[in-house]
Design brief:
The structure holds 2 protein chains of 2 kinds. Helix content of chain A is 67%, strand content 7%. By secondary structure, chain A is α/β, with parallel strands linked by helices. Chain A folds into 2 domains: 272 residues, no CATH class; 175 residues, 3-Layer(aba) Sandwich (abc type-2 transporter like fold). In chain A, strand 1, helix 3 and strand 2 form a beta-alpha-beta unit. Chain A is elongated. Chain B is of the alpha/beta class. Chain B folds into 2 domains: 249 residues, no CATH class; 169 residues, 3-Layer(aba) Sandwich (abc type-2 transporter like fold). Chain B has 16 helices and 5 strands. Chain B is elongated and about 120 Å long. Classes of the chains: A alpha/beta, B alpha/beta. At the A-B interface, helix 2, strand 4, helix 8, helix 9 and strand 5 of A face helix 2, helix 4, strand 4, helix 6 and helix 7 of B. Strand 4 of chain A pairs parallel with strand 5 of chain B, so a sheet runs across the interface.
């Protein structure tokens, strides 16, 4: 064990000598965590699902205000502009409800979410806002809207959508809902009254009024067909968005940490190849050191390096408010399992290559594929489900499953057990593959050096095989 | 000149004869771009909701009543091609053909699919394979005949904007069916109150009139509030997130390539290749110039292959390259020439600042990634707080990304001319600095 530790310490000393190593190990990831965190926060703020609708109300009647109030209630992200006008109509429509009792859309309208900056909304300004995608649609309520509804006459509401596909359609769906709800009793009263008049059952103006009152009563509440909302669980995307709005480091800290730990550890593949090429391992292999000790020392050094980097970057993330500190022990377990898995993966990959450039290439390909696939660059909940499943072929995905559960969803030990277990399985699998391939080379060596005493001390992959061949 | 070109050609051959370099310089960025495209094909910069159809499901368990299976009305209105062309007729023929119902309802947003059973629909919603599901219960028609019925829209998370949008559509349908139901009920009640019409009703003489009444009540045109849908004339071009990231990936990998090629001068020196060429009857400026020209041309090849490869890959993945916008090829060519020049110059300057090959590649890559992040890789710089967003202007990556974005938005040569000029000026400065440093480092005097 002492030999293992000496080899590990020696490797660590070599790796960490010079400020440049520290810069790459800690400095660069810190800067990237900071920049990416700021970018994520800005990005989430820029894409918060607010659907602005500019309303040109030329009627300014109780009916038009009721229409706007009903529209505001259809979907939370709808923000009806100009805010000041509709917050007033809202307060009348909602009997001055306390702010906390209003829906988010109504609360939103009390704030300046319309981006009008004090300007008065005119048709020209509305068109300009629509062209610039500041607003998703323009609804024009015509003059005489209320009067037409009172008489059961037709009135035309203009709906002009913006260029986007989804947001204007959401606004249109909400408008149709309100229109069918407001117009439904009038349709029923008018058609019924017309037929009954035609058949001579009813006569006079009172017929329509009586039918309208009856239709309104029939509409409830509750309406004839109630559309109940069944909501299941918590929407992970919404939780994620809400948290990232406050702090982008919640995503950048775990993601970039996991990425750089993988880059550092996979660097072992190239360093092993380089040591082999330079004959360093040959020299060490000729010393009275067992192969297992040499391999163990290298792996221990890599593991400790990865763990140290993980710990420092996690602490930094904690300082930036990432939120891993709530469960430090669970975080440590996940970190250990992840570092173990990646260390074993580095060993397995190292056995596939011969030269430093091959090793460097395979390591680069590995991290460039596994890191984004596993969700370190973007959360896996944003990608299609098949890609999420595919992503879990990467240890990164399991590590981030556990870390994200702790950061975003107040996870507990139960949330880290499965991912950590899978990571340990990854480690075992990679380790077996790595060692088996080493054994295979050792067999070759044993055959070629059947009579030599050096076979036991030699580590074939590390270069003795080449030497014997020579 | 011949020597210069020969050295440049040699550099390019060396670079692209190595399969490892081909893997790292060409295959890897294309692979990342493919991943990005698969993950964010429908995300458009500046728009909060992905521009894709919303998958929703519908489960109709309605067993029907004497008025027919009214749950089918939802299915027929929501699905583009209903399985049946007519509803089961009721005994009096009241609902003979309500296909005109809601024909004006715009359902372009939703991709509706029928789901066999409720448990499966709930599971699909929970796995987020469906955004929402409409669940029509077995006794829906019977309950509606008794005046009150309920359907359920099931989705994940209370503030689910798309789930609520689907609920709005279902409510529109529910309102229309309710209108029909109330119209019918009030009319029949009125007809029954008069002895003459009661007899006509009982003998079936009013069936046609009532059927017409039902159809009229179901039409959106009957509503006193008519919505005039004015199609948007202005269709501003947008940049997809995948396109934006593809451009940044290409710039990043070309920068890496230029850096590594510049750093290779240290290898050449360590292996005495450079010294041997130095003692040949060739002026040092030709040797270094040839190598730099080789690096530049190799970068141009790499960038061109990446741009073409990404465009081809996107078409292969099923989405158009620019959503109808024609990219100005001349503008693209000019911009690529300038971007690669700036990237090559930056590579030479970084390599010149480093002492060894390892230093140049390791720290150089880190420096390029940091510069790239500050310049708008992954996130548009407008999202950064001040003064970070202003700092980005000193990076060549900012001008490169801004130029590509302008072209993607339909801009022409004139729109990217300032970017190209700034990038060229940066390239000249970087080349001058890099040339001076490299000559000092590798021993040319």
């Amino acid at each position: 064990m002492r030999n293992v530790w000496i080899i590990a310490r020696n490797d660590l000393q070599i790796t960490l000598q010079g400020w440049q190593s520290w810069f790459l190990l800690i400095g660069v990831p810190v800067l990237i965590i900071y920049l990416v965190g700021m970018g994520i926060q800005g990005f989430v703020q820029s894409v918060s699902p607010t659907i602005r609708i500019d309303i040109l109300d030329w009627d300014r009647s109780p009916a038009s205000r009721a229409f706007v109030a009903a529209l505001a209630d259809t979907n939370e992200p709808l923000v009806l502009c100009p805010a000041r006008d509709f917050s007033q109509s809202m307060s009348r429509a909602e009997s001055r409800e306390p702010l906390e009792n209003l829906s988010r859309a109504q609360r939103g309208m009390t704030d300046d979410m319309c981006l009008l900056a004090g300007a008065k909304l005119s048709p020209e300004l509305a068109q300009e806002r629509l062209s610039n995608e500041v607003t998703s649609a323009i609804i024009t309520i015509p003059k005489g809207f209320a009067a037409a509804l009172e008489k059961g006459d037709k009135t035309i509401l203009n709906f002009q959508p913006g260029a986007a596909l989804v947001a204007p359609q959401i606004a249109f769906g909400a408008t149709q809902q309100v229109v069918t709800r407001m117009g439904g009793p009038i349709v029923a009263a008018r058609l019924s009254s017309e037929l009954l008049k035609a058949r001579g059952v009813e006569t006079g103006l009172e017929s329509y009024a009586a039918r309208l009152a009856e239709a309104k009563a029939s509409w409830g509440p509750p309406p004839p067909i109630q559309v109940r909302t069944g909501v299941t669980g918590l929407n992970e995307k919404l939780i994620l968005r809400a948290q990232l709005l406050k702090n982008g480091f919640k995503m950048s800290a775990p993601g970039i940490t996991v990425m750089f730990v993988m880059i550092s550890i996979l660097g072992m593949t190239a360093s092993l190849a380089e040591e082999r090429i330079l004959g360093i391992l040959r020299r060490v292999g000729m010393m009275p050191v067992r192969q297992a000790h040499l391999l163990g020392g290298k792996l221990l050094a890599t593991f400790l390096l990865g763990w140290f980097q993980f710990a420092v970057l996690t602490l930094l993330g904690e300082w930036l408010g990432a939120g891993l500190g709530s469960a430090p022990l669970a975080t440590m377990v996940v970190a250990s399992a992840y570092v173990l898995a990646v260390t074993a993966m580095a060993l397995a990959l190292a056995t596939l290559t011969r030269t430093p450039s091959q090793a460097s290439a395979i390591a680069t390909v590995a991290w460039v594929v596994l890191v984004p696939l596993g969700g370190a660059w973007w959360p896996l909940i944003l990608v299609p489900s098949w890609m999420r499943t595919l992503g879990h072929l990467s240890p990164v995905a399991w590590c981030l499953d556990a870390l994200n559960a702790l950061v975003f969803y107040q996870g507990t030990w139960a949330d880290v057990v499965l991912p950590s277990g899978v990571l340990v399985l990854f480690a075992a699998l990679f380790f077996v593959v790595g060692v088996r391939r080493l054994d295979y080379h050792q067999g070759d060596l044993g055959q070629s050096a059947r009579d030599g005493d050096r076979a036991e001390a030699a580590v074939p992959y590390f270069g003795i095989q080449t030497i014997d061949a020579e | 000149m011949t020597k210069l070109l020969a050295i440049a050609r040699h550099e390019i051959t060396l670079r692209y004869a190595d399969p490892v370099i081909l893997l790292l310089a060409i295959a890897l960025p294309l692979l990342i771009a493919a991943l990005v495209n698969l993950a964010f094909a429908h995300v458009v910069l500046g728009r909060s909701i992905p521009e894709a159809k919303v998958p929703v499901g519908i489960v109709n368990r309605d067993k029907g009543s004497q008025w027919g299976n009214l749950g089918t009305l939802f299915v027929r209105a929501l699905t583009p091609e209903p399985a049946a062309t007519t509803l089961p007729a009721n005994p009096t023929g009241m609902l003979r053909d309500p296909t005109g119902m809601l024909r004006n309802l715009r359902l372009a947003l939703f991709a509706v699919r029928g789901v066999a059973d409720e448990t499966e629909a709930r599971r699909l919603v929970e796995r987020e394979e469906l955004v929402a599901a409409l669940l029509i219960p077995p006794n829906f028609s019977e309950d509606l005949a008794m005046e009150r019925a309920t359907v359920e829209v099931y989705f994940v998370g209370r503030e689910n904007v798309l789930g609520v949008a689907f609920k709005n559509v279902v409510e529109t349908l529910a309102n229309t069916i309710s209108t029909v139901e109330i119209t019918l009920r009030m009319t029949v009640k009125g007809l029954l109150s008069d002895p003459l019409t009661r007899t006509e009703l009982q003998t079936g003489m009013l069936d046609d009139a009532i059927a017409d009444l039902v159809l009229t009540a179901a039409l959106l045109e009957s509503n006193p509030i008519q919505i005039q849908y004015i199609p948007s004339i202005v269709q501003p071009a947008q940049v997809k997130l995948a396109h934006y990231l593809a451009a940044t990936i290409a710039i990043m990998f070309v920068s890496f390539g230029a850096l590594v090629m510049s750093a290779n001068l240290f290898h050449d020196k360590a292996q005495w290749t450079l010294q041997r060429t130095y003692i040949s009857p060739t002026r040092p400026v030709i040797i270094l110039g040839g190598q730099v020209l080789g690096i530049y041309l190799a970068g141009l090849i790499q960038m061109s292959v990446l741009v073409a490869g990404m465009a081809f890959m996107e078409q292969a993945l099923g989405s158009s390259t620019a959503d109808g916008i024609k990219i100005d090829l001349l503008g693209l060519t000019i911009l690529i020439l300038a971007v690669v020049a700036a990237a090559t110059g930056m590579g030479a300057a970084i390599a010149g600042s480093a002492g060894t090959y390892t230093e140049a590649t390791n720290y150089g890559r880190a420096f390029l990634v940091l510069m790239g992040l500050a310049g708008g890789f992954f996130f548009p710089v407008e999202l950064f707080p001040q003064p970070l967003d202003l700092l980005s202007r000193v990076t060549f990556q900012y001008w490169a990304i801004a130029g590509f974005t302008k072209l993607a938005l339909g801009g022409g040569i004139t729109s990217i001319l300032p970017h190209s000029l700034i990038l060229t000026a940066m390239a000249i400065v970087f080349f001058a600095v890099g040339n001076w440093l490299l000559r000092r480092r590798i021993g040319f005097v």
